[in-house]
Amino acid sequence: FQGGDTCEYLLSSGRFLGEKVWQPHSCMMHKYKNSEAKNCLIDKHIVFIGDSRIRQLFYSFIKLINPQVKEEGNKHGNIPFEDKSSSIKVDFLWYPEVNGSMRQRIKSWTEGSVAKPHIIVVGAATWSIKIHNGSNEALAQYKINITSIAPLLEKLAKSSDVYWVLQDPVYEDMLSESRKMITNEKIDAYNEAAVRILNSSSRNSKAKVKVFSVSKLIAQETIMKSADGLHLPESSRDTNAMILMNVYCNKIMKPIDGSCCQPQPPLTLIQKMAFCFFTLSIIGYLIISLIHRNNYRKNKSCTDLESGEEKKPSISTPNFSTLEMLLHSFCKLGLIMTYFYLCDRANLFMKENKFYTHSSFFIPIVYILVLGVFYTENTKETKVLNREQTDEWKGWMQLVILIYHISGASTFLPVYMHIRVLVAAYLFQTGYGHFSYFWIKGDFGVYRVCQVLFRLNFLVVVLCIVMDRPYQFYYFVPLVTVWFMIIYATLAIWPQIVQKKANGNCLWHFGLLLKLICLLTCIYFLSYSQGTFEKIFSFWPLSKCFELNGNVYEWWFRWKLDRYVVFHGMLFAFIYLALQKRQMISEGKGDPLFSNRVSNVLLFISVVSFLTYSIWASSCKNKTECNELHPSVSVVQILAFILIRNIPGYVRSVYSSFFAWFGKISLELFICQYHIWLAADTKGILVLIPGYPMFNVLVSTFIFVCVAHEISQITNDLAQIVVPKDNSTLLKRLLCIGGFFSGLHLFSAIQDQSRH
């Protein structure tokens, strides 16, 4: 931790990811849209002063406000620009030399009640080198002139943002004869003079002229593509303009993926209360541990003075009370949440933008597949979608999704469409698993519901408090929670139809199918009635859970994207369990699921279907159109995979313990990645070790997986305490939880009011 200002890094250092993506050192750049640029610069006056290079930067900057602007007009004169809709004025003032004329213009803004520009961008030198043929006298005069201008710029810097743009290097081989005297040696001398003189009288003051030196680094990589050896190519100018926009606008707009120049957000009231709670838990646990330790020492074996024999205590290890287990869990959770906060809310660790390449996605995929195959073991049972197999399925899907997120592969449409199938497969398992449980066990008790809801939501609720994020931000958990409640409601409402009842009378099977048809009808209706859907989830208190950025559109989009797949999972479970009950499938070890002929036909159809979907997904041209078809066709590849994985007996009898281990903590991995593996709420990458990307990923991944595993254990421990089996005790706990959320809502309202 260098403790430096990320604005300084943004203005002075960085590197290219690929050919056109600029990565500032230690922080993330936001790519501003026209609407965002207008909102940031509303009622602002920006001035660019300098030569033709500054004019290029001026045009790139105003194109961020209005892309339709054309580079026309007097090249050696002033150029005004105004966006009347946002009251933005941007002027270019032609002053190709640092001289008396430039000084007079700058001085006019420091006198009296003249309106000062909000942003001033200045830079010039190449004309002085050219006109005076690169003489030493011209450099000496440049130093004198910039010395006279520096105090004026420093005075303006107290109320405006002032940037001095250092001169970019040139590509000497391409310069015309009239520009041959402009050498990189001369440019370096002029830049050195500017840096030494600027801010010399205000080194300890906050009001400083900001030196825009990053343009030099960008030019060193791209000046070879220049048309004349002097002026930067358009892509480089656009990068400089975007850096300028980030420097000024990030602290105003506070974009999630723009960590450069953003101050650390202040602690909210709820965050302070969470900090106090975890601190008290740690202190409480330490006190109880010390008391236990002292008692244990007193009971330790001691020498009998009369016989000289050693007596053994009746209990060799201390007993852990419920209170101590509770405090122990919250103690560990408090330390973990501190790490979460430091990683993604404090400006302690660096963050970088994602950059996709095919190798960054596919090479890790091959690597984990090889590892997964290496750790192959026999399953305890050979049923279709047995526990080990579903854990394995969740595990490899989660690892692929993690690689997808860290590599930024969402920009590559074929990969995006296949990842959408993996997310759908998770929801398919939700439908399959919960339907199977309720259908076989017939357990619709409150204890079961509370256990599932607690395990799904505990980590997310804690993160909402600690990281100051809405519940809907962690969209997958609300999705599986709502679908669990829909499955429960579908099967629990009268008449409750379970396997035991249906075995006595086949008509009950038709009753259950009727329930599933009603569910499908409701899903279909809501998917084509956005207004009704939004009204349902806009009612308080549902709106508090499902709103994001003031509306429920994001929730509507996420729900609609995989609206049928949970129903498909329920239907598959019903058909499979019916076939299993009638002994129409063979699930013995090494046996194919059906007769050889049927198995071969189904395998062939499954492989063809699987490949057909992949070909279709790979040929997708438009994300919107493909997303429209996805809910109806994703089940094809899911069912094809299940059949390929389960029809051959030898394939069904083995599983990968490597993938299964990750599958058991897949939910924690999915949620934890938001803040301690990725950064800026998944928009970037956390950098614990700068300068060593591969080593950084290894270290951050190790910590991330350990934390996810630990949180899984904490959740399991707390679930046993918070959700007891005794109904009267459970009711009291539910009242306490209701009181907790009421208090949370009250403090949230106070917090929102203080923000406004």
UniProtKB/TrEMBL annotation:
Keywords: Acyltransferase, Glycoprotein, Golgi apparatus, Membrane, Transferase, Transmembrane, Transmembrane helix. The chain crosses the membrane at residues 269-291, 355-375, 396-417, 452-468, 474-494, 506-526, 561-579, 600-617, 629-647, 659-679, 685-709. Its main location: Golgi. The keyword Ribosomal protein does not apply. It is found in: Golgi apparatus membrane. InterPro entries: Cas1_AcylTrans_dom, NXPE4_C. Its EC number is 2.3.1.45. Residues 253-734 form the Cas1p 10 TM acyl transferase domain. Residues 22-92 form the NXPE C-terminal domain. It is an enzyme of class 2 (transferase). GO terms for biological process: carbohydrate metabolic process. It is a multi-pass membrane protein. It catalyses: a ganglioside GD3 (d18:1(4E)) + acetyl-CoA = a ganglioside Ac-O-7-GD3(d18:1(4E)) + CoA; CMP-N-acetyl-beta-neuraminate + acetyl-CoA = CMP-N-acetyl-9-O-acetyl-beta-neuraminate + CoA; CMP-N-acetyl-beta-neuraminate + acetyl-CoA = CMP-N-acetyl-7-O-acetyl-beta-neuraminate + CoA. GO terms for cellular component: Golgi membrane. One of its GO terms (molecular function) is N-acetylneuraminate 9-O-acetyltransferase activity. Belongs to the PC-esterase family. CASD1 subfamily. This is N-acetylneuraminate (7)9-O-acetyltransferase. It comes from Piprites chloris.
